Amino acid sequence: MLSAIKPKLILGLALASLSVSAAEITVQVDKPGATVSPTLYGVFFEDINRAGDGGLYAELVQNRSFEDNASLIAWTPLTNSNAVATFELDKSSPLNANNPTSLKIHMEKSGGDRVGIFNQGFKGIVATGKFPETSEKWRQAFEEAQCKPINGLAVVAGEKYRFSVYARAQDFSGKLAVSLETQSGELLTQERVKEVSKDWKKFELTLAPKKSDVDARLVLSTDKSGTLWLDMISLFPSDTWKNHGLRPDLAQMMADMQPGLLRFPGGSFSEGHILAEAWHWKETIGDVAERRGTWNIWGYRSTSGLGFHEYLQLAEDLGAQPLYVAHVGMAENDFVPMDQLEPWIQDGLDAIEYANGSVTSKWGAVRAKNGHPAPFHLKYIEIGNENGMGYSWGGGNRADYLPRYQAFYERIKAAYPDIVCIANIHTEPDAPADMVDEHYYETSDWFFKAATKYDHYDRAKPKLYIGEYAVKKDAGNGNMRAALGEAAFLTGLERNADVVVMSSYAPLFTNPHWEKWKPDAIVFDHTRCYGTPSYYVQAMFAANRPDVVLPVNLPEITNAVPMLFAAAGLKKDSGDLILKIVNRGSRSEGLNINLPGLAEKYSKGACTELSAESPTDENSFAQPKKISPKVSTLPAFSQGCNHIFPPYSVTVLRWSKN
Ligand code: AHR
């Protein structure tokens, strides 16, 4: 007992100097409870706030296929006062049916100097924060915002960039110069495309800039007369995450979250404003030049360069279970009539075959052709997104959703009984569901109260996936208060791991210059990124996900909503003991930690602490790690120990046996 008493005395002294009281917390190590699912802490990827095109997808050229808009956005004609040249979007001789528009440059007279076009990458727009009601209004806002350049194209000296273009020509016998330049025209590197003929042909070059520049531009030009058609102008860094086409720093941020689950492709993104703008997975696989792309509900066009295959690959690369959100035939503003639902159901079934089917199956063979003969082991399908939650959420009410959901559910289960079907709403008692997805965007107070929400969940009901949640209403740009609310909530999910088997914070990414939704977990621009305090909560909880829940009794520190929240558990293989404590209050709280039934001696321990001076503190590009986890060692113990939890903190205590 001596070793337990001694630290208590020390704690007492420490607490006296801090004027905090020591309370008791008991972790019942002798009463292991529910198994914690490896998918409990996941991520939800949606192309929102430029998370995909202009973000995780490493393409540097915006509007590469000239399909983004009816006008020539993101490209600027480059001409000279003596030249006679026209630049127009042209559909007379498409590259292919999915990519009907190309750029036609007609040079009657080059004027002795170069004529061409340049692209400045994913220039940012100033976010309006408003939500235009129709896609037409989104489009207008998009077009207007293109006039506000924020960032150019970032290139790094010593790196190699893969450039490609489809080109054809008429009465043109010159060369097409391809260069990276500074905004003032200083040449960083230049190569040439030769022998452009009358038929479409793909040309590939490597560009190696001699100097780094965060505000560069890609220029295609010539000084010869004639007519040129250009399409699919692409510039990719050679170095992408695991060589799968993703921006390394952003993908690594995701990997560092150690997600057990990857939900994709959205969100409202997967539904579309209208059915005509829905994301169809079959249009997002194979050669990127053949992918149709789609208008993204979040205010820009998605190229589908990040497509179904890439998402499955990303899940595999992250070591996460893929969760595909299938379109249930309900967009935000129109629905497929029940008697026309069949092709949509078949799309869902084919998606499963693409992911899992043998290489001799129709879609398994396509997967193999696309470079992945082994199955992706897709196990989770969500039938729709937020459909049936009522019109204020977007896509339809319960009566609209139930028959469509049921039609999907029955067909998927008949063909693939092991696939776990996730419903958007509690379909019981009208229809079966393997799991239900719940979404919460609320205040921090709501989340503090909801820490006990699932203590009272009827265990006869379906298992739960908390697929989207975040403190949204008093969260600033992603402050500590938000992180505290989410962490408190997560202690409740973990303690109720018998019913809550998956969760994912949302949204994952934002480029503040394209922001339509905040806060988010990861903030980036064209060269930098950082995690919000919420990001670190996610990473800390996932890195310390126990395999088994241990009951934990925490004293009532305050009345209605507690100041402290806790969850505890064990790692099966190592025997590591993990205790998570959230202190939402403005004063330090000391706890004597009791561990009845603890037989083994834990000889080493680590404390990971995330804290802030004020609940409104945030990280920023200027101070990206102002609020970030600090790790320290803990003394060994055999019967119990004590710890002081600072104000506004999330702490993980983890002890190991040797
Ligand atoms: O996460 C942002 C949006 O919130 C998602 O697209 C949608 O599912 C939800 O309403």
Can you walk me through this structure?
- The chain is of the alpha/beta class.
- The strands form 7 sheets. An 8-stranded parallel β-barrel has the order 2-14-17-18-19-20-21-22, surrounded by 4 helices.
- Helix 6 (342-356) crosses helix 7 (362-369) and helix 10 (480-495) runs parallel beside helix 11.
- It starts with a helix and ends with a strand.
- Mean pLDDT is 91; it is low at 1-19 and 125-132.
- The structure holds alpha-L-arabinofuranose.
- Alpha-L-arabinofuranose binds next to helix 4.
The gyration radius over C-alpha positions equals 27 Å
Quaternary state of this entry equals single chain
Name the bound molecules: alpha-L-arabinofuranose
Low-confidence stretches: 1-19, 125-132
Helix content: 10-25%
Beta-strand share of residues: 25-35%
| Termini Cα gap | 21 Å
Question: Could you tell me the number of beta strands?
Answer: 34
List the helices and strands and how they pair.
Layout: H1 2-18, E1 22-27, E2 42-44, E3 75-78, E4 84-90, E5 102-109, E6 115-119, H2 135-145, E7 153-155, E8 161-170, E9 176-181, E10 187-193, E11 201-207, E12 213-222, E13 226-237, H3 248-256, E14 261-264, H4 268-271, E15 294-296, E16 300-302, H5 308-318, E17 321-326, H6 342-356, H7 362-369, E18 380-383, H8 398-415, E19 420-423, E20 435-442, H9 444-449, E21 463-471, H10 480-495, E22 500-505, E23 509-510, E24 522-524, E25 529-531, H11 533-543, E26 548-550, E27 552-553, E28 564-570, E29 577-583, E30 589-594, E31 604-611, E32 630-634, E33 640-645, E34 649-656
Parallel strand pairs: 1-30, 2-14, 2-22, 14-17, 17-18, 18-19, 19-20, 20-21, 21-22, 23-24
Antiparallel strand pairs: 1-27, 3-6, 4-5, 5-13, 6-12, 7-12, 8-11, 8-13, 9-10, 9-12, 15-16, 24-25, 26-28, 28-29, 29-34, 30-33, 31-32, 31-34
Helix pairs in contact: 6-7, 10-11
Bound molecules: alpha-L-arabinofuranose.
